[in-house]
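Memo to structure team: turn this sequence into structure tokens by end of day. - J.P.
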Amino acid sequence: MYKRTRTHRHMLLLASGLLAMLMIVTACGSSGPDEAAEAPAKVTFMAGFKPQANLPFVAAYVAWEKGYFAEQGLEVDILHSNAGQHLQLLLAGDVDITTADAPSVLKRRAAPDVPIRAIALFGQSGQTAFAVLESSGMRSPKDWEGKTFGYKGSQPAEYLALLNAAGVDRSKIQEVRVGFDPRVLSEGQVDILAVFRSNEPDTLARIGHPVRIFRPDDFGVPTMGLTYIATTETIAENSDVVERFLKATMRAFAFTLENEEETLDIVMTFAPQEDREHQRFMLREELRNAQGPVTLADGLGAMTGEQWRALYDQLLEFEALTRSFDYRTAYDDQFMRAIYEGPKLQWP
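Reply from structure team:
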């Protein structure tokens, strides 16, 4: 009886062991296709300038560092466009997602053969503002009459709109192209300067010339800032990947709102040559400009047709567009609507 029981137990143990081994072998043998199916999707993201605390760049940095991309099944390469080649690389298919200013998206879409769409909006307010030295005594745009205005490459449409809104006589202002060095203001070459509001006011303050800033949106001028863009082909053929990329970066966006120091730590790993306090100024300004009624209702990064229509009408009015077209072809908000329920991000 004892021998039979022992043998029986031995046979049961042996059978159990064989079954376990069979299950392991079967699992291992079937893991190949599953693993291949679950392999991370590769995405190439190119920031439209050097490494720094522009919010669309920061969202990608944080999503990479905190593992949000990985949680969404993505393997993301983060590149930077120091020579302004990001749009060309996007159109060539070498980059999947990049950044662009909303007015530039509309200007590009005025050419029907440039198939790009904005898929998320970071800048609820635009990048451009107008600076005067604090010591100048100018307190309103009317004070610009009789002064010299410097602009970078072309006349900003928001400058013309602001003059119109504030009742300024443009004929009394001398307008000159000055390039991209903000020191032309501190050196007295111009009295008013078009500046990138997230960094150049701090640059001037750091060299001992604090400025007063005039923001177009404070005068009722429609403005929009930086966006993520993709081609219509990428949107159509890789919509799931685009959605997961946006979900990860929007979670990172939310993280930056609550974790300034850790966010700056991450920024400095990508931009070790930059000054941390200058990056802090930039981050705070970008976050301030990235929030508003639309994001409160629909979530960070959201955009509306009304915003795009108002900006389009303004650019058309002041001849910043080469032709009229359907402004709705400049953006695609399907992804932002998919990842949010009201202002709440649906994670994962």
